[in-house]
Specification:
The complex is a heterodimer of chains A (321) and B (304). Chain A is mainly alpha-helical. Chain A has two domains: 46-89; 107-311, MetI-like (MetI-like fold). Chain A has eleven helices and three strands, in the order αββαβααααααααα. Chain A has a three-stranded antiparallel sheet. Chain A is elongated. With 304 residues, chain B is of the alpha/beta class. Chain B has a domain at 14-103 and 179-286: P-loop containing nucleotide triphosphate hydrolases (Rossmann fold, 3-Layer(aba) Sandwich). The radius of gyration of chain B is 22 Å and the shape is globular. Classes of the chains: A mainly alpha (321), B alpha/beta (304). At the A-B interface, α8 and α9 of A face β6 and α3 of B.
């Protein structure tokens, strides 16, 4: 396969390049990160002190700006003291890939500093629970409401103008209110996820419902379908595949509200772990925790995509040739 | 240009005349009385249909034809109950009907099969809506699927079928409810010529063998003449009945008749009604503004 066929407009790649290039999308950023981390003359604005030499305040392992190091080295030279020795280093907030990789394991085995604090897996579990309940409660109300609004103009006019207004109110703005009403545990955090998801959800589901081919509804009516059977036998099955896809996208949005939600009241879950580790300057753990969110999110999405293919056998498979 | 000597389309052989006499003695299945339809549009009120009157008899095959904008789709949608007329009545077997109902089956150009249901479940849809239990619905559905020759595909989903097969399922689905009349809105319009010809003979075969009255919209003159007992010709702006033509081509029909004198005579009449000779002004407006864009000394200087 020649290079030029890689850039044919809207033509699918063959199975091999498809796989290779997909892997590359992860390898490329990792490569850039590795280059910046392991090639000493790329960036590395700091110097890690190996031998303090004649400089009084230098300690082994200390990180200083390169200009400071150069200046102190020059002064030491002029004063005839032993020269300090050091290696180029990156700032503490950019750990190298292998450090983060190790942190993926050690973050789970690191004992909490205080008795009352939680292990990482407990924090993660808290986060997943908050997301789950926020999304489930939102969907239980939002999906039926969206379907009704998309089916009946009356419902659409009754709900949508207000929801259209409300969705512009930023969910985190309700943080203080949520704590005042719901206390400091999971409840206010679930409420923030709910507020962040629900209003978009109603509008998205309503739009999806409206996109159902009206000819299907007409055909059903000429076959004798009446009000309720139109809704339950045509509208709902007709939109189910698109609805499922919407839910996957909305679940992604719910995850983006997680960090803000967990900062409300007393911080909790994965966010608490991240802020705590950042305070101790364990940035390898911070990176590991951020990536864990990404990995969990992507895994759930792939799982749902796989499940979708099994639930909806009539969905047209994308043509592959 | 040589001119073919054709009989008048009004000339009928004794057999054909006798058949039409008997046809008109059959009970009336559909009667349309003084039907009007007006739309509100940006340019104000538009009359889509004006004072439409006609009746079809039991087991008759009627085609509706007319220039674009004559309201033939609006007419069939009103008959199906998908749109409400501004005034007028329609009666099915003598009873006035409003809104859609299983007594009038409809086949759309866009197939409109339910993509989430298998072929069998699609055909069962109407049966279940009209109070049949799952077991009898399934049995009856299988009979209709058998009738259109798709038993091998009973458990397939619509996206696995070709266009012609989809339309056969749609016909089976509409017939399964045993409607008094089958309304077909350019059902073969999206099919290629070969499939379309095959579908036409399938449809004739189905019509000959079961108790069904068919009202069929098309813009294809050959299709209309080949299929119809009578052709309802509409005129545009406003949509009015131009003529109700009794097709003089003898029954049963076969593709060989496409070149018979009666067929061509009817076609000539339809051509005259649907593509009337244009006025000077109109034809100049339709003309391309063409200039010669090939040099005179070109190797291929002319196409002739």
């Amino acid at each position: 396969m020649s290079m030029s066929s890689w850039f044919a407009v809207r033509k699918e790649l063959g199975p091999r390049p498809r796989f290779v290039i997909g892997v590359m999308s992860f390898v490329l950023p990792l490569l850039i990160w590795s280059l910046v981390s392991y090639v000493p003359w790329l960036w590395h604005p700091k110097v890690e002190i190996r031998e303090p030499g004649g400089v009084g305040y230098f300690k082994p392992g200390m990180l200083v700006d390169r200009e400071v190091f150069d200046k102190e080295a020059l002064t030491a030279e002029q004063q005839g003291k032993t020269l300090p020795l050091g290696d180029p280093a990156n700032p503490i907030y950019l750990p190298a890939p292998h450090e983060v990789a190790i942190a993926f394991y050690t973050a789970f085995t690191t004992e909490p500093k205080r008795r009352s604090e939680k292990w990482l897996h407990e924090s993660l579990w808290d986060s997943i629970q908050v997301i789950f309940w926020g999304f489930v409660i939102s969907s239980m109300i939002g999906v039926p409401l969206g379907i009704l609004a998309g089916t009946y103009h009356f419902m659409s006019r009754l709900f949508e103008p207000f929801i259209e207004f409300f969705r512009y109110l930023p969910a985190p703005a309700f943080g203080a209110l949520a704590v005042a009403v719901l206390g400091i545990h999971h409840a206010p955090k679930i409420a923030i996820i709910f507020i962040g998801t629900f209003f978009q959800q109603v509008l998205v589901v309503a739009n999806t419902t409206r996109k159902l081919d009206p000819a299907l509804l007409e055909a059903a009516q000429t076959l004798g379908a009446k009000r309720l059977s139109l809704l339950f036998r045509v509208v709902i099955p007709g939109i189910s595949t698109d609805l499922y896809r919407d839910m996957r996208i909305l679940l992604g949005w719910a995850w983006t509200y997680l960090i803000v939600a967990e900062l409300i009241g007393s911080s909790s879950g994965i966010t608490w772990f991240i802020t705590q580790q950042a305070r101790y300057k364990n940035f390898d753990n911070v990176f590991a925790a951020i990536m864990m969110i990404g990995i969990i999110g992507l895994t759930i999405d792939l799982l749902l995509a796989w499940l979708g293919k099994r639930i909806f056998p009539w969905q047209r498979q994308p043509a592959r040739n | 240009m040589h001119h073919l000597e054709l009989p008048s389309y009004l000339e009928q052989s004794p057999e054909v005349r006798d058949r039409f006499t008997r046809l008109k003695q059959r009970p009336v299945v559909l009667e349309v009385k003084g039907l009007n339809k007006e739309f509100e549009s940006h340019q104000g009120q538009v009359t889509a249909l004006k004072d439409i009157n006609f009746q079809t008899h039991r087991r008759e095959f009627v085609c509706v034809i007319g220039p674009s904008g004559c309201g033939k789709s609006t007419l069939i949608r009103i008959l199906a109950g998908l749109e409400t007329p501004t005034s007028g009545q329609m009666l099915i077997a003598g009873e006035e009907v409003h809104g859609p109902g299983p007594d009038r089956g409809m086949v759309f150009q866009s197939y409109t099969l339910f993509p989430w249901l298998t072929v069998k479940k699609n055909v069962m849809f109407g049966l279940e809506r009209t109070g049949h239990g799952t077991f009898t619905a399934e049995q009856e559905a299988m009979q209709w699927i058998d009738l259109v020759g798709l038993n091998k595909f009973a458990d397939s989903y619509p996206h696995q079928l070709s266009g012609g097969m989809k339309q056969r399922v749609a016909i089976a689905r509409a017939l399964a409810n045993q409607p008094r009349i089958l309304l077909m809105d350019e059902p073969f319009g999206a099919l290629d010529a070969q499939t379309r010809a095959k579908m036409q003979s399938y449809l004739l075969e189905i019509w000959q063998n079961i108790d069904i009255t068919i009202l069929f919209i098309t813009h294809d003159l050959d299709e209309a003449i080949y299929l119809a007992d009578r052709i309802l010709v509409l005129r545009a702006h406003p949509g009015e009945v131009e003529e109700l033509i009794e097709v003089p081509v003898p029954q049963p029909r076969s593709p060989e008749q496409f070149l018979s004198a009666e067929f061509l005579a009817t076609k000539k009449r339809l051509e005259a009604l649907i593509h009337p000779p244009q006025s000077e002004e109109q034809s100049s407006a339709d003309h391309l503004n063409m200039v010669r864009m090939v040099s005179l000394d070109d190797e291929v200087e002319s196409v002739f």
